[in-house]
Each structure stands twice: as C-alpha cells, then as structure tokens.
Specification:
InterPro entries: ClpP/crotonase-like_dom_sf, ECH/Chromodomain_protein, Enoyl-CoA_hydra/iso, Enoyl-CoA_hydra_C. This protein is α/β, with parallel strands linked by helices. It has one domain (1-180, 199-257): 2-enoyl-CoA Hydratase, Chain A, domain 1 (Alpha-Beta Complex), CATH 3.90.226. It is 47% helix and 15% strand. The protein has ten helices and nine strands. The strands form two sheets. The chain has a six-stranded mixed β-sheet, with helices on both faces. A three-stranded mixed β-sheet has the order 5-7-8. A hairpin with a 2-residue loop joins β1 (5-10) and β2 (13-18). α1 runs parallel beside α3 (80-90) and α5 (140-148) packs across α6 (150-157). It is globular. Bound molecules: coenzyme A. Coenzyme A binds next to α2 and β5. Coenzyme A binds at residues 23-24, 26, 62-67, 102, 104-105, 132, 245.
Amino acid sequence: MSEHVLVEREGGLLTLRLNRLDKMNALTRAMYASLADALEAAEQDRGVRAVLITGGPECFTGGNDVNDFLQAPPSSTDSPVFRFMHALLDCSKPVLAAVAGPAVGIGTTLLLHCDLVYVSRDARLSTPFVNLGLCPEFGSSLILPRLLGPMRASRMLLLGERLSGAQAVEWGLASEVLDDGAATEARARETALRFVDLAPAAVADSKRLMRAPQREELLRVIEVEGELFNQRLRSPEAIEALSAFTQRRTPDFSRFA
Ligand code: COA
C-alpha cells in the first residue's frame, strides 16, 4: 500500500485520499496500484455502499507523475494505471469525487467515470495531452465530444484549455461548485453518505443501466487510445515535452515535421 494514498472507512463509505501534496498529488505507479487494490476490495465488500475520491482541500492531482512517464512508461494494459481505471469503470457502487485546485490529465479523465463530481470554485480541470506530445486516454476522446460537442472538446483535448469549477458545472463535467476545498469535500461526503441508506442493488442496477449503452464502445476506444498513448509516450515529441516540464522550460516542438 502506498503511503501516498490514504484509505479511510467510515461505515459504508470508503474514501480514497491522494496524499502527496508536495508533488501536487502526482500519481505514481505505486499510487495507482493502491487505488486499484482499494477499489477491487470495495467491489467485493458488501459493506461498502459508496466510494469518495479526493485530493484534499488544495489540490486534486497534477496528473500522472511525469518522472514515471519518462522512466517507466506503462507498456501494457496490465500496468497499474490500467488496473485502476478498469476497477473504476467496473465499480458497481457509486463513485463520487471532490475536486479542489488542479485536476490535470488523468485527474480530469477519471472524473468522466465518476457518478457525481463536486468541484471547488478554484478547481482547474485540464487535459493537456497534446501539450505533452500525448493523446487522449481512457475514453476521453469518446466521452468529451459527446458530452461537450466537438468545439468545446477541441478546446480541452486539442488546446489543453483549463476549466474553472464554475465552467466545469456549466459544461456538465461536475454536479455542483462549492466555495472552497473544505466545503467541496463536505458536500461530496454528505452526498456519498446518502447512498449508504439507499437500496444497494437498486443503485447498482441503475448505474449499470445508465452505462450499458456506451460500455462496449467505450472499452474498444480505451484499447485503441491506450495503444496509441503508450506509443506516444515513447515519441520524441512527448520526451521533449515531459523533459521540458522537469527542466521547468517551455517545450520546443519546432524541429518536428
Ligand atoms: N509529476 C511529477 N511532479 C509533479 C507533477 C507531475 N505530474 N505535478 C507537479 N509536480 C511537482 C513539481 O515538479 C514540483 O516539484 P518540486 O517542488 O520538487 O520542484 C511540485 O510538484 C509543485 O509543482 P509546481 O509546478 O511547482 O506547482 P504549481 O502550483 O506552480 O503548479 C500544477 C501546479 C499542477 C499546475 C503544475 O505542477 C502542473 O502543470 N503539473 C502537471 C504536470 C503534467 O503535465 N502532468 C501530466 C499530465 S498527463
């Protein structure tokens, strides 16, 4: 279990708390593995009625750890990030997220697979894959154009524009915007606890029905995106962009044809 993920149990509510604030909760392989283990265990545990994912009151996550991307890029669909995202996709219990501050890359992508998302006014949702020489992942190339329309999806997926908390609600990516991180987590927790008192099989059936029409298509898209993403991670464009982040400079793509 990674020390950077805290797994908290309060009756029927399981909270997964990212706990690596000095690195903006950037997600390492070990953190994905812990998140996957916790979600897989929650699925088997009849006592868990809802799951809440949060990064605390200041920052959701700076996305995948850039050093991991450079040094140990995922090579197959067995890697911890795939295990985590598939556990999220397969979770039959309601998953809620409380988001304050930045939610970069996979931090925003994972929200697309949650059932309810609460955001702080200072939240900044972004999917800067192209800026990093990468491409969309885990279904975002399917879900975002469908949800936002192609123009807004291009602003997010091609230009990497950041959305504020209020904009995330306006665009349908989040359920409600709250004044600050503490209020956001409190609202998400309060809502998650409502599920504890609801009929669990009815919740699970309803969640499955809502997701069923898109599920096969989503799994196919995720496979195609995953192959391309893993190739792109090894591309000179991505290596330039990721190295630039670690060297705190602007990437230079001028040499690429
Ligand atoms: N991977 C590794 N380290 C990360 C990180 C990431 N994804 N995101 C942030 N960090 C680290 C920084 O390197 C810095 O570490 P240091 O103090 O040892 O130098 C620390 O977290 C604080 O980040 P910093 O950039 O100084 O904070 P900020 O408040 O100016 O900006 C972000 C915060 C989240 C906006 C910025 O860090 C960012 O854009 N990160 C995203 C990186 C990225 O491209 N992620 C991949 C997405 S696919």
